[in-house]
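so my prof wants the structure for this chain in the tokens format not the other one, which i didnt know existed until like an hour ago. anyway here's the sequence
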Amino acid sequence: MRTALSTLTVTVVSVSDTAGGAEAHTVALGQGMRQRGHDIVLYGRCPGWEEQGLDRREIALGPKWSRRTMAAGILRAPLERRRTRGIVDSSLYYLQFKREQIALTAPLSRRAPVVWTEHGRWMGGPAGRLLLAGYARAAEHVSRVICVGDAVADDLAPMIGRDRLVVVPNAIDTRRYTAVSDGARAALRERLLPSRFRDRRVAILAARLHRAKHHDRAIAAALASGSVLLVVGAGPDRERLEQLSAGSPDVHFTGHRDDVPDLLAAADFYLYCGAETDGTPTCVLEAAAVGLPVVAFDGDPGAELVPRCGGLVIGDPAELTTEKAAALLDRRGSGVAYVEQRHGRQTWLDAYEQIFRECLR
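here's what i got, hopefully its the right format
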């Protein structure tokens, strides 16, 4: 079905059971394409997809590839390629995780263009080397690779070539993440914060609790600054982090929360801890849109966004002194305009829609 149509049919093939940035990106794309009158369906699983009333169909794929599941996943790839026969015809197919890209791109590309999104830097170590050859072969069949940042595109250019790479920075829903009045903020603090936090300077971070995210630094920086810290999110590293901060009443783990915009609005500043493979961190954009100054660590992917949002980049947790943390409060709201102008959802959807249509020509 390579004929350009006014209404697109976009088929997403993606299996993930853990909420994260890529999953939120997928749901936002599904919502936006549906609102623009296109047909979009997911084969697989994605947290939040069905909750938004989006169409999903089952496909018998194994778990998302990780260092733990990759060896078994590679062995299962020939069977999973055959299972693509059960996927309906589409205007194009959209993939974003390594298993789907490496194992499924070639058979799907015989039926319609395939588009990938790359959310982060190329992984290092043995896992990265193991995937490299398969990824390069699969890339021969992809029509476009959408990269969330220039650094991501630079990683992929030697494998794919510049002609099929397109940079589309991540975006957020600036209607959901928005600055609030002082009165509304006071009410949120009263309602959402532990009582012992309400009269203190509150730092916050909201991210999956995984060792690669280096939450240790955020905990150390918050405590060095004399601030209390809200750690929002769930993940396999929670037990270790709780042990690390044991005995400190100034660190509070909330677990997974659906009211992150309100929690951000109730805080005073955001601590960003990036993983080595992060692309454009939406958590930084969300915090800045709400009005929070952001503190990041020098060298982390995405840290270059922070000064544009009126934030502070430090080299070591001990650099976040009480004086520097107090001075952050004067920067509240300084990143709102930047996020609204550069990272709004509608501009992002325009770019995706244009790329999808170009692939059909």
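also thought this was worth mentioning. The CA atoms of residues 14 and 41 lie 11 Å apart.
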